[in-house]
Design a protein that fits this description.
The chain is of the alpha+beta class and 251 residues long. Helix content is 50%, strand content 27%. The chain has 8 helices and 7 strands.
Amino acid sequence: MSTNKMMYAAFVVVALVTACAEQYSETYNIHGTSSVSVLDGSKLYLKVLTGADLKSIDSCEVVHGDFGFTGQLDSTHLAMLSIRDGGMPLVIEKGDIKVTIDKTGNKVSGTPMNEKLYEYIDKHIQLENQREELGRKEAQMIFDGIDERTIATTLSAENDRLLMQLDSLETGFILANLDNVLGPCAFQLLTSSYPYPVLTPQIEEIMGKATDRFKNDHYVKEYYSKAKEILARMKGEIDDETAAETDAATE
């Protein structure tokens, strides 16, 4: 797996276990299969975020490639299925949830939000794979004797096109899921790639169209407030003492 994809997968796991919840009262039923033989006999844990901590709500053992969870929660949760040193996100919601683990990738299906989530993840990874292919394409173009200026112009245009598609995919997915558990999680996935909270045109577009429910999500609200504070500090509109007082007042 490439570095980009591993980073993306890591961001997904972090993002999805910190989402908000939707009220419901249903039994969840998760059935999983694994074709990865080393997982046989392994203990798997189903975890949700409680406060600031990940809490295991259920566990099971992989037996001959099969495993499962069942139980009840008072809300729809985005959770993490902990697998050895890694994990995969899933939505605990009404219905029969199917988890598939194999060497080519992991997938959750069977219920509406899980289908929507993994369709988004698959599309994101596909676009990132296409960006990775540009490096191999450059090597082939050099081998074919194409001049450097033509190579740079061609590949730059392709990279810009793919970045625009990623931007459109991310923004569209968040805006389409502002009022359910997926929107805030995708926002955290998006912003996790930044070294510190920043306000990009993409984020400003999202926040300009966001609903009150989305804006009041804990992570979204905290990120946006901190990003505005950092921007104001960079512009000299506030100093560190004022920022510290503001932080203390909001704690």
